From TrEMBL:
Keyword Transmembrane helix set for record: yes
Main location: membrane
Keyword tags: Cell membrane, Membrane, Transmembrane, Transmembrane helix, Transport
GO molecular function, one term: ABC-type transporter activity
Organism listed in the record: Waddlia chondrophila (strain ATCC VR-1470 / WSU 86-1044)
Domain ABC transmembrane type-2: 133-367
Keyword Membrane attributed: yes
Membrane topology: Multi-pass membrane protein
Identification of the protein by name: Transport permease protein
Domain of life: Bacteria
GO cellular-component term (any): ATP-binding cassette (ABC) transporter complex
Segments traversing the membrane: 24-43, 172-197, 218-245, 257-275, 287-306, 312-333, 345-364
Localization (cell): Cell membrane
Amino acid sequence: MLRKLHALIIKELIAVWQDKRSRMALITPPIIQFFVFTFAATLDVHNISLGILNRDEGQYSREFIYRLSGSPEFTQIIYFDSDQELKEAVDAEKVLAAIQIDANFSRKILSDETGEILLIADGRKSNASQIAGGYISNIAQAYNAFLAKRKGMPLPLSELKPRNWYNANLNYTWFTITGLIGTLSMLTSLSVTALSISREKEMGTFEQLLVSPLDHRMILLGKAIPALMIGVVEGSVMLLAGFLFLDLPIRGSLLMFYPSMAIFVFAIVGIGLFISSLSQTQQQSALGVFLCVSPLVITSGFATPVENMTQGLQILAMLNPLKYFLIIVRGICLKDISAGTVFHNTWPMLLIALGTLGTASWFFKRKIG
């Protein structure tokens, strides 16, 4: 029996590689998504165009502008002579943010009064504008402390110095690549299994598979194990790419990572086999994968925290194996989480895997019966 199962696994791996559609699904999406999500789809804001309308010609306004121009985030500084020019630049999206320095800015500082600077941001790009405003506020606070020290004024009695645990530089690519380890292994294993049975139907070999000396459970197992192997390899490649090219740390144990990953992929494989059992063509299977991937990613916490979702979506997320696996992979890479935490997020995936594989087996048996 094991020899027959081994032959079916080898046959499935060869079929996946020889089929152009399956081969493209294995190679192209991971490469594209790795570069897009890690280098393009980032919440970090760089190369900001900043507009400046300086009505003051004093020393302090020039010093403040010099500090802004020295910041690596502001790569383009555009100067304006009037409010109308500044307004037109913001309307035309030539600048993301702009500052307007009051005409009495330097005189007020010399008189130990508060100098005023107006910050104007493009609200159409709310997230980027908020981050750019934060950059300018930090520069202004640092300049205030510098002026207070130079003028001999009392400094604040307390100062907040933030320290970011687990990701000291708030490197967003670490958050992204750990999410891709889960989403790409899910997408790959789901695509392989969803296309497996429908591919047999299109090629006319499904009936030959049914008359082989294997029952429905062995057939499904022969379809599931290759997808498991491919999904684990896909996740390992993403983990290695993050480690080599993005300096992703691996602070936890890989001995806890791989068993949980295998259980996660098995849960996804069950969903793929269920889709494949329902489909008659590979096109129908691809549509089924598309319908499943979107809600799985959205409710997983890949981009937004699950806690920020509505109560109904949070309940739905409890049935999503990707949610639990992302907690594990991010915890192992960034936090060195304990074995108890890994187990706490692994057993729900195991229950989901048993449920999805059991449902796929029952439906497949009923379909061929």
